[in-house]
Write a structure and sequence with these properties.
The structure is a homodimer. The first copy, chain A, is α/β, with parallel strands linked by helices. Helices cover 37% and strands 20% of the residues of chain A. Chain A folds into two domains: 145 residues, Thiolase/Chalcone synthase (Peroxisomal Thiolase, Chain A, domain 1), CATH 3.40.47; 225 residues, Peroxisomal Thiolase, Chain A, domain 1, CATH 3.40.47.10. Chain A is globular and about 55 Å long. The mean pLDDT of chain A is 95.
Amino acid sequence: MVNDVAVLGIGMHPFGKFENKHLKDLANTAIWNAIEDAGIHASKIQAAYVGNCLGGLLVGQESVRGQVILRHAGFKGIPIVNVENACATASTAFRMAWLSVKSGLHDVVLAVGVEKMFVGNTAKSIEALSTATDIEVCGNMGLQFTSIYAMNIRKKMDRYGWTKEDLGLVAEKNSYNGSLNPYAQFKKPLSKEEVLASKMIADPITLFMASPMGDGAAAAIVCNEKIARQLKKGNPIIRVAASELSSGHASMLESTPKESTTYTTALKAYEQAGVGPEDIDLAEVHDAMSPAELKIYEELGLCNEGDAIKLIREGRTKISGDIPVNPSGGLASRGHPVGATGLAQIAEVVWQLRGEAGKRQVRSGDGKLPRFGLTQNDGGYVEGDQAASCIHILSRV
Amino acid sequence: MVNDVAVLGIGMHPFGKFENKHLKDLANTAIWNAIEDAGIHASKIQAAYVGNCLGGLLVGQESVRGQVILRHAGFKGIPIVNVENACATASTAFRMAWLSVKSGLHDVVLAVGVEKMFVGNTAKSIEALSTATDIEVCGNMGLQFTSIYAMNIRKKMDRYGWTKEDLGLVAEKNSYNGSLNPYAQFKKPLSKEEVLASKMIADPITLFMASPMGDGAAAAIVCNEKIARQLKKGNPIIRVAASELSSGHASMLESTPKESTTYTTALKAYEQAGVGPEDIDLAEVHDAMSPAELKIYEELGLCNEGDAIKLIREGRTKISGDIPVNPSGGLASRGHPVGATGLAQIAEVVWQLRGEAGKRQVRSGDGKLPRFGLTQNDGGYVEGDQAASCIHILSRV
């Protein structure tokens, strides 16, 4: 593959509840924010990959979602591919855009992720989410994501001595981070006591640990790095140092960190980027239920097996820590409009690497900006295995 | 882009009505037929792109359709991307597989297209099809595909002197071709009189000119051409000489042949393959309503503007003609399970280029096998424009 790939621009529509906005409106804001951020004319965009999960089931728009969205945003004639991978949809769209540029097929490509989950019918939205499994095996049979996560977390508590307070600490950290993020759905910092006292959803998961329903969109424009160098004249470039995607091969309930799909996918990503977990300066990870962040520390190799609780107890994954995780607030605080999340993770890492993250800016002890950021985005499960694991490493060069 | 790409294997599940078969069953047959045809071990497949349009709306399987299908087929761990582009879904999945190999990202990649449209509720199936438009503009308002095609065809009749007999001749030709195709949904040869006497659907389109509801699947395995050469030892290779995708830029109702999205997409495909329309030995085209085949002759440059009726009247697009079109029977006879059609077109061209098309084998006047075959697959429309136009050129080398 011939070209280095840079992220030229990123944009978001805030995550939250936007009753009068439809897919087109949400996506339009993210797309044009990304174009403005990239500093290019929209006509330079040669192709687009559009991610959405639930448009068909929740708002009735299927089949040509990307074409409808891009026409509304003012585009005509470019190749558009609609991409779907459950909650890893947007990172998959980003990966396809990366591949289009990496290969030399295109020079400038747009990736968009958008979701509209508030449709005035919570039961319908939850039923739609259950299609991220094999519906003939468990999707329609009550084994909802939250309970899968709960079983997984209980097993980890037994095996590694995680306490309820540890689980609360993750949500406490991420709600604080979210309070600093203007795009976050929830901006109220919560204490771990408030988290643990909130309504029990699926023991040990309480309401404030769970990612909410959400509307929102995120977009990125990627380009041949040579173009980025011309446009950015002397300013740092954000390079896509690695892109990896796998479907699951190990049970979410049974696997140790090193058996997990996240681990094997991350290994390939580290190899592609030529770095190790020790080089990662921050990570945006898939804490659909915030305690899951703990197992992800271990699966990404940010610590050894069993040491995740040390990281959270010692505050090492706070914005002020040595390996900040989810400075954006993560899925539970920034929000999780499923088809948009992966690109919101990319956006956060880009802002952080550029030093544009405002009050939630990550810096090393000596005040330096981070150089390597990782995003980890999961999607669905089939016969107990993670259906999609998509990991990107971005670097400032 | 570094590698030449070959089609190593193709497979289909017959198109038709299969009441007791679901997406997984249909796809499984196509996938394993393709693997057997490729002559490789399934473990050599490194990634998969899975196309489906209506699974979410018609059978309730959304989000991870490809993962569910591939797990059922016995795959675990490989990267899977779910792809959608209305009726051009399967050709888009094939294009993504091509890009993955062309770029050097992978060496052997599977593309699958599958659709299940017979769900015991025709109204529901038709409503699902209407999502291949902007549902807020016209999808839910009665302007169904058939009527768009009818308006387009009436305009062409006025402008170019097409008669009802010409329209009937296309269906007559294609129903004969379909009668020779073991995978076709309809195998009864029809006379043009029978076609014209069948029920009027949207004047001038009669029932036997319209593609039917259908269940079915098709798959292709593409690989780095070097691998194909090792495996095929001296036998001809089927190369993907061009892959092009556009979204529409010109109204389906107003455009002349050279203004059409098909024309501009085809031009790029010819350029990529280094050939012209005069080099094409056969074409599989998107005759969702069979008279549309006439305009496609002109849009692909197989004849000059206004000359399409000469081609059909003189029998030149019959299997025995000098430029056979839709030897498979096309969408109206082979059938049109929407998310599978593009790969069925690819399968037909591969069989034809290899000389494996049995009674419908295309040969030149001196008995030679065809060398260049083209597939043209359309998907959806947004604000009057074709939403996706995907064209491939395959060559025997």
